[in-house]
Design brief:
six-stranded mixed beta sheet, 2 domains, AAA+_ATPase, alpha/beta, globular, Rossmann fold, ATP binding, ATP-binding, Alpha-Beta Plaits, ABC_transporter-like_ATP-bd, transport, about 300 residues
């Protein structure tokens, strides 16, 4: 359905995206992941025809969109990271305004507004001014706007940032339902790996403008098939212990959270004696040291050296 071929974007002397190759099949949900500054937003801007690439091509149904972007613009829906609504208008008025931009009118527009309000769970709030909505309700209405013209492809750029768990679950279930019932193709970016685990068929991981991994969830996890993830917990971690772990040549990754350190080591290495010794030298009392099955988050840490939320 959509293919990015050797796509690059250069701003002055800096490449925001470099030689990016991706493909999107009709009816799948594809995750686009990367830490801040990885090039995700630039890639999205190019594939949606908002920004021209420096080099490379974007092909929609095997035809370049660079000279003729109209075909992809007609079938694409965009849910931006920032809320894009008129907050002094009601939910219904926002949908009517954007529906007219999509050239919907009359009975067709009215029917579509009713359908969208029901889908996003805001039928009983249709007359309320958007500025009075919670963050989650604004996010849901933002998604509703992108769905007005029945897009074949919807791009969702971190659609659950800063909202409550209930609204977040509602959005995830809605995306899943749209994909399953309407065969809608979705490109999904998120800072929450559990959302990607729940939604996505395939994943692309970017860092510093480059594509560094791609595949299904299982294929991505197999990147760590020769390594194991170990979680060390303590009530009070200290810098001496953490620095000692970082200095150990057998440990490929060290990630520190409040009361937890996650390390990645080769499968054949028995790191337990070394961890206990380092804890003793740092006068640190450990609560537990556990091996866990590699997750997408572990692979992401291994590839980028950063957590997805960094």
């Amino acid at each position: 359905m959509l293919e990015l071929i050797d796509l690059s974007k250069k701003f002055k002397q800096l490449y925001a995206v470099k030689n990016l190759n991706m493909f999107i099949e009709k009816g799948e949900i594809v995750g686009l992941l990367g830490p801040n500054g990885a090039g995700k937003s630039t890639a999205i801007s190019m594939l949606s025809s908002l920004v021209d690439p420096t080099t490379g091509d974007v092909r929609f149904h095997n035809k370049s969109i660079l000279k003729n972007p109209s075909p992809i613009r007609k079938i694409i829906g965009m849910v931006p990271q920032e809320i894009a609504l008129y907050t002094d208008l009601s939910a219904e008025e926002n949908l009517r305004f954007f529906g007219r931009i999509y050239r919907l009118k009359g009975a067709e527009l009215k029917q579509k507004i009713d359908e969208i309000l029901e889908l996003i769970g805001l039928t009983d709030r249709r007359k309320d001014i958007v500025k009075k909505f919670s963050g989650g309700m604004k996010r849901r209405l933002n998604i509703g706007v992108a769905l007005l013209h029945n897009p074949e492809l919807i791009i969702m750029d971190e659609p659950t940032v800063g909202i409550d768990p209930q609204s977040r679950n509602y959005i995830l279930e809605t995306v899943k339902r749209l994909n399953e019932e309407k065969q809608m193709t979705v490109i999904y970016t998120s800072h929450y790996m559990e959302e990607v685990e729940f939604l996505c068929d395939r994943i692309y991981i970017m860092d510093q403008g480059n594509l560094i991994a791609s595949g299904t969830k299982d294929e991505i996890k197999r990147i760590l098939s020769a390594e194991k993830t170990i979680v060390i917990k303590a009530d009070r971690l200290n810098d001496i212990f953490i620095e000692s772990l970082r200095q150990d040549p057998t440990i490929s990754s060290v990630t520190v959270e409040e009361k937890k350190v996650t390390i990645i080591v080769p499968k054949e290495i028995n790191i337990f004696p070394a961890v206990l010794k380092l804890a003793e030298e740092a006068k640190l009392e450990l609560n537990s040291v556990d091996i866990k099955t590699p997750t997408l988050e572990d692979v992401f840490l291994h590839l980028t050296g950063r957590a997805l939320r960094d």
